[in-house]
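Dear H.,

Thanks for agreeing to be a second pair of eyes. The structure we're designing against is below in token form, covering all 144 positions.
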């Protein structure tokens, strides 16, 4: 597997929901995003190709994938910004290992609503998050 990470496996949607449910302040959620960013291993420089670099993000962001034998998709990525990298980690948790149809049948950003992460994002980070979501959906469509 290219660029393995713990999201969707050791760090799951339910574990994120449990962790974030204890936070009342945005600062606590922000700190948790930074911690999630640290848990996402840096992407090897050889994988940071222009073909997987997303546009529309405040920081440079790479989002790649490979097909799994079971029909699911393994996503991997990186960002130069720690908050964007944390947002990427949450997104990876929501979509990792899912089939293209599962990804297209569910809003990839639904987990962000559940974790109450979207309302405090700056407009540029919200645009970047939308670009990440669109990137995941485009990959799913490609894999259909």
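And this is the sequence the design step returned. I haven't edited it by hand at all.
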């Amino acid at each position: 597997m290219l660029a393995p990470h713990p999201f969707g496996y050791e760090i799951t949607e339910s574990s994120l929901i449990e962790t974030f449910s204890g936070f009342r302040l945005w600062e606590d959620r922000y700190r948790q995003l930074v911690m999630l960013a640290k848990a996402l291993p840096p992407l090897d420089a050889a994988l940071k190709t222009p073909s997987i670099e997303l546009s529309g993000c405040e920081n440079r962001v790479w989002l790649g994938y490979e097909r799994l034998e079971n029909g699911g998709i393994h996503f991997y990525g990186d960002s130069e910004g720690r908050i964007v990298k944390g947002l990427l980690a949450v997104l990876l948790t929501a979509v990792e290992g899912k089939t293209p149809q599962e990804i297209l049948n569910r809003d990839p950003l639904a987990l962000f609503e559940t974790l109450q992460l979207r309302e405090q994002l700056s407009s540029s980070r919200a645009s970047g998050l939308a670009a990440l979501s669109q990137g995941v959906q485009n990959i799913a469509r490609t894999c259909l």
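Two observations from my side: The domain at 13-143 is CATH 3.90.1010.10 (Sufe protein. Chain: A). The radius of gyration is 14 Å.

Warmly,
E.
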